[in-house]
Structure formats: C-alpha cells, structure tokens
Amino acid sequence: MTVQRRTETQRSRLVGGVVACVLVIAATSDATAQTYHSGQNLQPVFEGWEQNTDGSFNMVFGYLNRNYEEELNIPVGPDNFLEPGDVDRGQPTYFYPRRQRVVWRVRVPADWGDKELVWTVTAHGKTDTAVGWLVPEQIIDEQVLAMNRSGGGAQDIANRVPSIALIEGHQRTVAVGEPLNLTTVITDDGVPPMRPARNSRPPGRRNALGLRLAWIQYRGPGTVTFDPFTPPMADHTPGWTPPPIPEGGKIVTTARFSEPGTYVIRGMADDGYLYTPADVTVTVTP
Question: How many CB atoms lie within 10 A of CB 161?
Fold first, then answer.
C-alpha cells in the first residue's frame, strides 16, 4: 500500500506540539453539527518529538477516534502498522472514542536524521496515517504536554511527574470472567492543585486538575471492564473533579476480561498536566 508522505502543504503549515492538537480539532470543526456514535474512521496523530539524555528521540503519538461511542479494536497487522522497520512498535490496538492525546512513544536512535516514521490505521474501510519526523518546530517538552492535556493555560511551574507502583507486578494470569485485583500506589507533589473541569470553547477542552488513577485497555482480543472506571474523556466534563485519594495513595481496581488471550492494560497516575503509565500484561485463560 502506498503511504502519503509529506507534501509542501504539510511542510508549510504551522507545527508544534500545541499547534498539532489545535489542527486536529480545527480539522474536525465541520463535524460539530453532525456527530456519529459509530461507523467512523480513526485518525492517528503525530504529537511531536522529545529528545532523550542519551541523544535518542521519542516520537510521540495520539489519535482521534471520530466515533462518540464506538470503541475500536484494531490488531497489529495490515490495518495497524508502523513503517519503516518492525510493524509492531508498541502502538495501541484498542481505541477509545474521541481525541486521546500523548498515548504512546517510539524511541528512535540519535542518528535518525530526516527519516519519517509513519503510523497507518484502517478503520471502517478508511485508511489514515500520521507522519512523524524531527522537524525542529515540533519538539515538545513537559510544558507543552501539560498545555495540550489541560486545554491550555498550564503555568510554567515546577511540577513533578506523578509516580505509580504496581503491587502485584507487571505479569498476571486470570480466567475469563474472573475478577483480577490491581493494587496500585500513586503519589504526587500536589502540583497542580485540585480544580474541577471548566467550561470551554470548544466544549471539553479544559480538563480537571489534581491527582487521579485511571485504568484503560491498551491491547487485547476482547474487552476489559474496570471497577471503578473513569472513561478517558470524563475528566473533561465540566464540573468533574478527581475523586479523593486514599491515605498512602493505595487504590484497588478490579478488572474482568471478556475472552481468552493476551491483553495489555495500562494504569496511569495523572495530575491533569502530566501522567506516568504502568502497563500490565495479562494472560487470560478459558
């Protein structure tokens, strides 16, 4: 399959971590008058790139699932792949509705140069790509990430990334339908202070601030239900406030799996600006 590469139009448009997110929102403004619960495509998004202390780089990606309700499950393969190189670079295969920012990273070597990294996803018969490259204007840092995730207005203040510890470890086994307890301990520095999600234009752009734990399905053949569960866009609902954190930061979540297979689930300690992920690979037996 031929993948569309950079065009002169792409090269000339405004870029940057914040601008990349704004462009995706602007590109979907025509759809505000008509929304779809299901049946729509998925647009991968290149958020920008980070430089690591060893000289390597992280290509940072998110996505826009254009459905307002349908969750898409697209396994790695001809409908979900990276190029050049290994088609499986750790990308998600389970996609929640609407815009999900800064979902995953691909580390590339220090001598990557001007090469492109292309993520291609096909959903409901439509193929879309995100093209990542090390254009200087798209370098991002924690301040840019905080502005993207909070909907703008992130103060230039010292903010430690939240921490998360998985008490039972990163490898688990459970039978279909049986509960799997996930015990985590999350901590933060109290920055930013707690704040409910605010009204915004467009709606849902300003998320709540304050430490919270979220579990999501990242990969797997079936579906995973979490109890308690905070939908990925719930913290953008005006008035929503993160629930209180128990003393010591210890939280127990129960997961159940719909069918056998190998799953990856992700716990996230999130303060509204930055988050730290912790993945658990679960083998689900019949």
Answer: 16
Q: Strand pairing partners for 226?
A: 255
Quote the tokens at residue 30.
């025509």
- What is the full DSSP assignment across 226-281? EES---TTGGGSTT--PPPPPGGGEEEEEEEESSSEEEEEEEEEE-SS-EEEEEEE
CB atoms within 10 A of CB 270: 27
Name, in order, each residue with C-beta under 8 angstroms of 154's C-beta and a sequence gap of 6 or more.
Answer: 143, 146, 147, 192, 273
Could you tell me how many residues make up the chain? 286
Q: Residue 58 corresponds to which amino acid?
A: N
Query: 163-285 adopts what CATH topology?
Result: Immunoglobulin-like (2.60.40)
**What residues does each domain of the chain span?**
8-140, 163-285
pLDDT (tens, 9 = 90+) of the chain, 286 residues, equals 434 455 443 443 333 444 444 444 444 444 444 788 999 999 999 999 999 999 999 999 999 999 999 999 999 999 999 999 999 999 999 999 999 999 999 999 999 999 999 999 999 999 999 999 999 999 999 888 888 887 766 667 788 999 999 999 999 999 999 999 999 999 999 999 999 998 876 665 688 999 999 999 999 999 999 999 988 888 888 899 999 999 999 999 999 999 999 999 999 999 999 999 999 999 999 9
Nearest-angstrom CA–CA distance, 265 and 217: 5
Residues 27, 44: Cα–Cα separation, whole Å: 13
**pTM, rounded to two decimals:** 0.86
Please report the sign of the dihedral spanned by the C-alpha atoms of residue 276, residue 280, residue 281, residue 286. Answer: negative
Q: Other CB atoms closer than 10 Å to residue 200's CB: what's the count?
A: 14
